[in-house]
Protein 1
Amino acid sequence: MKIYAIQLGLSSEDKSYNFNAVKELLLECTIEPNSLIVLPEMFGTGFNLNLSETILGEPSLTEGFLSDLASSQRSWVVGGTVVPATERGWGINRALILNPSGEKVRHYDKIHPMQSLGEDKVHQKGANIELINIEGFEACPFICFDLRFPEIFRRATRLGATLFVVIACWPQSRIEHWSTLLRARAIENQAYVVGVNAIGYGSGIEYGGHSVVIDPKGKILASTQQEQGVLESRINLDELTRWRKEFPVLSQMLPEWS
């Protein structure tokens, strides 16, 4: 399956600006049907905790844009947004998953809002790991700070995950952690990992970029640094299956320790 990771310069809180930037970047690509297109966390606004801006017009605004993108490119799409919560007037940091027909087939809500930035005071945390079959891969989305918690990745692996999609607005100041943890999640779970980060600035944060596609052995298949663009790569389920059979680490997991 072909992967198209969109590393976007989120320098504006104007959703239409960022939506148009996505369209312009994809004009430079010839997208294979039934591929996977991935956009960063909260790609319409960047990491913004002002709910009056982030949830404005949601969930229909971002979902509508992603639906048009998926159907026009005949591909799967994963992208981040903030939607209104049903309680307390809060928001939810959410990853939307749409199929090549443009239908929303699943969503994942960020399990670990980042307390040090006050995200836990405005975003209701999620409670469920979500898996969705994408062209034979059991794909599991996570969002940014979730990457620091290997137990949820291991739980997803026990449920059958073969592909992790991590979308983020990860800061430049800790970008080495981003790169290292993504490789660790791939190696320890013998799974493909697609990490898609933003670049630019928002809410006093410089986003670090360094989007990447990693194979189940931890090999970097494609990567970028801090430039805006579309990172392309290809992943192969047969190669993952062979590696898990050749080196059957996962069969030795002890349930009492995970």
Protein 2
Amino acid sequence: MKKIGIIGTGLIGGSYGLALKQLGGYRIYAADASRKHLNLALNAGLADEELTPDLYAEMDGIILSVPVDVLPRLAVEVLERTSRNTWIFDTGSIKSNLASFLSKHAERKRFVLSHPIAGTEYSGPGAAKTGLFEGKINIICNPGESDKNILKEVIDLHEKLGMTNHFLDAQEHDEHIAYVSHLSHISSFLLGKTVMDVESDEKNIFLMAGSGFASTVRLAKSSPDTWTPIFLENKTALLKVMRQYLQNLNYFASLLEEKKNEEIHTLLKEINKIGKIIDGIR
């Protein structure tokens, strides 16, 4: 059986464990900064054994599913303690900083910058689920910097999990993900804050909140431990898109203030086109 190590047993790492065990032919070793999370993962069957640094060299592959601010240090540690045949990939949603950090490392070619687009608003081992990756997209950044055989193993593994691989430059990835993911999370968090600031009676929120509100603030349930470092590491791209977002909010506020009925209707009709774009991608 192939030995796969997973460092970080939350939603993504835990779901990789479940998916690989379901495929068969893999023995899963897990590690986590939280002993509580590791015990939960082992007890729930997300992994078979604990992964300790002295076992790194025995692994056929290692998946790093940890917050983006600790990824560079951990990536170097794992690269330096694994064999020349071990593939390593991360699951972080920011790539430029990690790509730059690893660019001069002697073992860089064994590392694949990978980002499975398969998250939910939940976190921790209890959020892991079978089938999380089926029908989803996996982004691989700077593929030319990885050994072709290592790269093929990582591509094949994700295809076995039912994913489609796409390839992007790391900086391009970070800019795009700021628009379609990170801004969505900020909007959700701050909409939640705005409602709580204005509506002091929590009962009224629950009584009047329909499915639209629930779906819009769903991402506000996401883990601050995960998202604080993501926002900070993608600061440049996020600030750019946030300025555009604020400009659009101010423009809409001016239309409301001036009761521009026709302009509002035209604007909303134009924005409706996003539905066709999303449906076309799916």
Protein 3
Amino acid sequence: MQRALPFQQVDVFAEKPLEGNALAVISDADDLTEAQMAALARWTNLSETTFVLRPTHPEADYRVRIFTPQRELPFAGHPTLGTCHVWLDNGGKARGEYIVQECAAGLVRIRHGAGPLAFAAPPLVRSGAVETSVLQQIARALGIDLARIRASNWVDNGPGWVGVLLSSREEVLALQVDYAVLDGLNLGVIGPWAGEGAEADVEVRAFMGGEFAEDPVTGSLNASLAQWLIGAGELPERYVASQGTVIGRRGRVSIGRIGNDVWVGGPVQTCVVGQISI
């Protein structure tokens, strides 16, 4: 027997609809099997589809499972903000100062109220120096000399990110990636904007080596790049990242460090509201 479930499609890190990263959110999904969730994620064919469930942790306000068309993720950034937006839109109320999301990576705090939603970046599960062989692979995949990589670090908070810093936004935008050489690496590239009055401080691109090529706007990557580069003194404690330019998006991600926490925020636009029959 078919059952209709609440369905929304939202655009995350977008000041206007169709400028950010799309996300499908299915609410009241407790009765769906994992196989059904995976099938739905393949069917929507978006970078991620999320399923809102009753929490199992006593401190959580809700639980989410996050699927790409190929696999389940323990954590992802734009699904965190987009799912929270839908949960609030459907009448969700935080029990404490922050909304607390439960996901496979643990509990994630989300700031709400004045300004856009923002999540506290979770701890990195892998950090540190990138092996020389991996850096050489990255340089070949990007089609650049190894010397053009100013800095690099493992910045994995779940999806497996490795980050590299280039000297300018223009270098970042000019990259043409050979995904066969990338061979499954999830790579984040960042470079500074130049000039007074710039719309953003840095340009970011996210190359998903094993899944769906370039991601439009990526919360998890921006979170881990901020943890690395603020900590290394390369970026200030507050800045704005631009992402998605090459693929026709205008994503904007707001970063701010408060105490030991790096907060990652941005606007969310509701684009589709309805039901999905399963």
Protein 4
Amino acid sequence: MVTATFRFYEVLNDFLAPHHRWREFDAPCARAASLKHMIEALGVPHTEVELVLVNGESVGFDRLLRHGDRVAVYPKFEALDITPLLCVRDQPLRRTRFVADAHLGGLARLLRLTGFDTLYDNGFADDEIVAIALRDERIVLTRDRELLKRRSVTHGCFVHALKPRLQVREIFDRLDLAGSARPFTLCLDCNVPLRPIDRAQAEARIPPMVRERQQRFSTCDVCRRVFWEGSHWQHMRELVDELLDRG
């Protein structure tokens, strides 16, 4: 039997059994066990891991454990560029876009509000989410750690917060999204780009009071809804501004 010493850092401790948190501990490993297998056997989805050091050296998930190895496992680094050290993933995604599981509808709408392409359907099965993530190169958002442990999921985030406003702040902070946000460019329901239209084009689809008070309009070509900068827009603007200020 192979025994290795593990230490997990920061939010990764949330996934561990209580007696393993915030400390070094020895764990028995099967012969020929890979780092990915052992990290997930201890409860941590591989998508939550950004850097693994074995005996002080950055290695990939396929590294086989040897007796006496000392393993340090780190989440995403918020304030330090460690790109030259990374070995756990082949490459970053070229575009930041998401697929959210059935429990994250509110988060999906708020990400769309800030301009991030986010697929969501409360009927999506786990297999379908994985297939979409692979097909479109999307980041999986979920509160199901077992979904993130699937081998074919390469990019994902376990969402710790329970309420949508806290969830979107968590994802913005974790993935540093503020600089690439494009607020009010996607339909919140259809996830397709909005396009501007003039008042004459909007007139038949808006209340008379809105025609008198508003100058700028946009529409979704899928659901045909018309949007304008009313009181609801102002509330959404406050949330967007808070997210962008945090970045």
